[in-house]
Amino acid sequence: MSHRSKFLVIVDESVELNVAIQFAARRASNTKGGLVLLSVIEYADTQQWKSVEDIIHQESRAEAEKKLQEWSEVAFNISGNTPEIVIKEGVVSEEIIKFISEDKKIRFLVLAASDQDNPGPLVSLLAGQRSGKLPIPTVVIPAGLSSEEIDDLASRAQ
User: Fold this and answer.
1) What value does the mean pLDDT take over residues 76-90?
2) Burial of 74 per CB tally in 10 Å (0-12, 13-18, 19+)
3) Helical residues (DSSP H) of the chain, grouped into ranges
4) 3-state helix, strand, coil in the chain (%, to 5)
5) Higher-confidence residue: 3 or 49?
6) How far from each other are the two terminal CA atoms of the chain, in whole angstroms?
7) Would 62 be classed as within a structural domain?
8) Domain count, the chain
9) pLDDT tens for residues 109-154?
10) Most buried pick, 14, 74, 77, 130, via CB within 10 A?
11) What's the distance, CA 157 to chain centroid?
C-alpha cells in the first residue's frame, strides 16, 4: 500500500466515544496510520427563521470545533500524533458515507457500542441498516472494555 491508512471516528455525544478514540488512536499509532475525527452538524432548514437558524448554526459549529479540539488532545496524548479534524453539515449517515467515499485513505470506521441494551444510534445505523452502503469495514469496540484490553486489541500482532 503506497499511502498511509486512516482510522475514522465520529465525534458525537455518546458516552462510549472515549473507547472508540482510544482504540483508533492506539491502532493508528501502532500501524503508522492516521486518525480522522469527524463531527457532523445536523440541523433543520427553516427559511422563515433565517437569522435564528444562522445563530444556531454558528453555535453548533463552535461547539463542534470545541469538542473536536478536546478529543484531538485526548487522541494526541494516547498516540503522540495529531489527528485530522473535519466538520460536515447535513444528515449524519449520509455525510459519513459521502466523506468515506471522498477520502480513499480511510480504511476503517471505528465505533464503540454502548454497554446498555441498545448499542447506540450510530452502531445501529452504520453497522446495521446502512452497513451495505459503507465502502470500508466498521470496527465496533465494546464500551465495557478496560484501557488495558483496548490497548491489547489495538496492538499490532507480532
Assistant:
1) 95
2) middle
3) 17-30, 50-79, 92-102, 121-124, 147-154
4) 50, 20, 30
5) 49
6) 19
7) yes
8) 1
9) 999 887 777 666 666 666 666 556 778 888 888 888 999 999 999 9
10) 14
11) 24
